[in-house]
Amino acid sequence: MTVIRFPGHNWARCTDRECVGCVFCNGGLASCTVCGGGEGTLPTDCPGERMTATQQDAVYAGSLDYTRKEGWTGHGQKTG
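RE: above sequence
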C-alpha cells in the first residue's frame, strides 16, 4: 500500500499488481492512513494521530470535527 499525500489526509491506495478492482483501485473508498478515518468518519482536516472509535462515531454523527485552525470542536465549543 502506498500513500498519496493531500492537504489534511494521507489517502490509502492499493498497489497490488494482481488486484482486479478493489475499493481503493476503483476509487470508491477514501481512507486516511494517519487518523484512520474513512468516508463519513473523516474530519475536515487530519488530526495527525489515530482517532478513537468514539471520535470516529462523533465525526460521523456530525457532533465533532477537527480543523487545523480550531483543533477538535463539537457543538460550537473547543474540545481539545
